[in-house]
Design brief:
The chain is mostly helical. Among the domains are: about 160 residues, Serine Threonine Protein Phosphatase 5, Tetratricopeptide repeat (Alpha Horseshoe), CATH 1.25.40.10; about 110 residues, Serine Threonine Protein Phosphatase 5, Tetratricopeptide repeat, CATH 1.25.40.10. It contains 32 helices and no strands. It is elongated.
Length: about 575
């Protein structure tokens, strides 16, 4: 009831003052002014004031508030008793004239500052006028006069919930301490603690509510959700199952129960609940999509679930054919079972139906990038930029595709934009460093690598690329060797890392050791022309001409336009 009262008042609606007042207030005709009260003008005729006050009170009781005000105003000509100001304030409030209502209530308080009902009236007027801060001041004053005033404490707490939530909680807890647990107060404590993400305190309040009303299903449901927040999954399961026994058709509860099973990695139990929800006639699209996402998440742990996940999303597609939300999921899932042509259709439909969806563009671009069709990747992502201009992933993948296609200037522009959008992404900084290096912009390249290492000093990719760049220029070889060794320690079977370390050893004149590491890189298979040429160079330094020519020849087969390599073969030496 108190909560309802505050809502009406806070909304600015005028209600009968008896409904917005302290329980001490009454609907009877107000008491006559006390003849012993000292007024501001003691020489006036108090009997005349009293008669006018009685006349006004009778009119007020009949709802004739304007006429009552006239009588009260006349009464004030003879006596300034605070009860007259108080009655005038009530009449003005009933007429929704809040300014004179507040003025008269304040005058009553000025004469009798310790009279709680005067301050309660002013508080109600201020609430109806929307002056919540001033109303809160009055409630504070009431609590100073009467710390046990339940209505004042409760209403002040409600006023403070948004601006001073901790103080509001102190007030609510104070009420509980003085008067014991009450439903209205516990509701507020539970809700406020949930908003503040103090779920342990919300849990305590809800458990107290459950003791007051053990059969209340809504309380149990809220308590189950709090148990989930506090990761008390066994308690959550017990509470949810208890509610479902009495309300078995509640699909939202079953979806929540499935979430708990998922948190416990109990996929079989979760799937049973999810399938029950899917079979419901009252299934809404958001819940259906949520179930599909649960199946999708499980495919990341177990690829055998992919066909089931596809079935869930296909059913959604059938029921809601104009909703593009499942298309990206269906595309990714079909890629997972190597049906790239179907995946491409879904990604394309997603970009057409929801061109604002960066995930769809990125997935479509990545599919072609993965097939090393860099020009098609560039075409797709260039179009994507028209619709998702500030999607960091689009610019990053576009920059890398340009780099792989040998279009370094275009790569630089795309990657600089990616770094601008996400300046702390190590992959973007590393890729930009690599592109700067290819453009012989070594100052910029070094700066990009250094920025990346400040963010992640252990990034094996950055350590490797930076080390190789330094070794190619014959700079800081000791540091380059340390960085390369660290990257190799994190991935000893990475052919690129093996080649980098071997090439640094080559630059330091350690040719026999260089051969060992570069040979390992080649033996891992699918070595690039550069790696094959490095191995040939190392053998040449050891005067093993046959092996040198062997690997130079293999390198030239992969890079037929390399004129410097052709000269090496012709000479048989470096």
């Amino acid at each position: 009831m108190m909560k309802r009262w505050l809502w009406y008042c806070a909304a600015g609606s005028i209600v009968a003052l008896t409904g917005c007042s302290s329980p001490k207030e009454t609907t009877a005709v107000p008491a006559l002014p006390n003849p012993h009260t000292q007024s501001l003008d003691a020489g006036k005729d108090r009997s005349a004031a009293m008669q006018l006050f009685i006349d006004g009170s009778l009119k007020e009781s009949k709802g004739q508030f304007a006429d009552a005000i006239l009588d009260y105003q006349d009464a004030l000509r003879y006596d300034h008793d605070p009860a007259i100001f108080f009655s005038m304030a009530k009449c003005y409030a009933q007429l929704r004239r809040f300014v004179p209502a507040a003025e008269n209530a304040a005058k009553a308080i000025e004469h009798e500052p310790e009279r709680i009902e005067y301050r309660e009236l002013l508080s109600q007027i201020l609430l109806n006028a929307g002056q919540f801060d001033k109303a809160a001041e009055q409630y504070r004053s009431i609590l100073k006069l009467d710390p046990s005033n339940f209505n004042a404490a409760y209403t002040l707490a409600q006023l403070l919930e948004r601006v001073k939530p901790n103080e509001a909680l102190d007030l609510y807890n104070g009420i509980i301490t003085r008067q014991g647990p009450t439903w209205e107060v516990l509701v507020q404590i539970a809700q406020l603690n949930s908003v503040l993400q103090r779920f342990d305190k919300a849990e305590e309040a809800l458990e107290s509510m459950q003791k007051l009303d053990p059969a209340n299903l809504a309380v149990k449901q809220n308590l189950a959700e709090v148990y989930i927040r506090t990761k008390k999954f066994d308690k959550a399961l017990g509470t949810l199952n208890d509610v479902l026994e009495k309300n078995p058709d509640n699909i939202m509860l079953r979806a929540t129960l499935a979430d708990v099973y998922l948190q416990q990695n109990n996929w079989n139990s979760a799937k049973k609940e999810l399938n029950t929800v899917l079979a419901s006639d009252s299934l809404d699209p958001d819940t259906h999509l949520r179930i599909g996402m649960a199946f999708y998440a499980q495919t990341l742990k177990d690829t055998l679930v992919i066909p089931e996940a596809i079935t869930v999303f296909k059913k959604y597609e059938k029921n809601y054919p104009t909703d593009a939300r499942p298309f990206v999921y269906l595309g990714v899932l079909h890629r997972g079972i190597r049906k790239d042509s179907v995946a491409e259709q879904y990604f394309t439909r997603a970009t057409q139906s929801a061109n604002w969806n960066g995930d769809a563009w990125w997935q479509l671009g990545w599919m072609y990038f993965d097939k090393q069709d860099f020009m098609e990747t560039i075409s797709i992502l260039t179009k994507a930029k028209q619709y998702v201009q500030d999607d960091f992933r689009i610019h990053l993948l576009l920059g890398i595709a340009y780099n792989r296609a040998g279009l370094q200037q275009d790569s630089r522009i795309a990657l600089e934009r990616a770094v601008e959008l996400n300046p702390t992404d190590v992959n973007a900084l590393s890729s930009l460093g690599l592109t700067y290096d290819a453009l012989k912009m070594h100052t910029e390249s070094d700066s990009s690598y250094e920025r990346a290492l400040r963010i992640d000093p252990r990034s094996s990719l950055v350590l490797n690329n930076y080390a190789y760049s330094l070794s190619e220029r014959g700079l800081q070889l000791e540091r380059a060797e340390r960085m390369s060794k660290e990257s190799l320690a994190s991935d000893s079977l990475n052919s690129s890392y093996l080649d980098t370390y071997g090439w640094i050893l080559f630059q330091k004149g350690k040719y026999a050791e260089a051969v060992i590491y570069i040979q390992k890189a080649v033996d891992l298979g699918d070595a690039s022309a550069v790696v094959l040429e490095h191995l040939g160079d190392a053998y040449a330094k050891l005067n093993n001409t046959d092996e040198a020519k062997k690997y130079w020849t293999k390198a030239l087969e992969k890079d037929e336009k390399n004129s410097a390599l052709k000269l090496k073969l012709q000479r048989g030496t470096l």
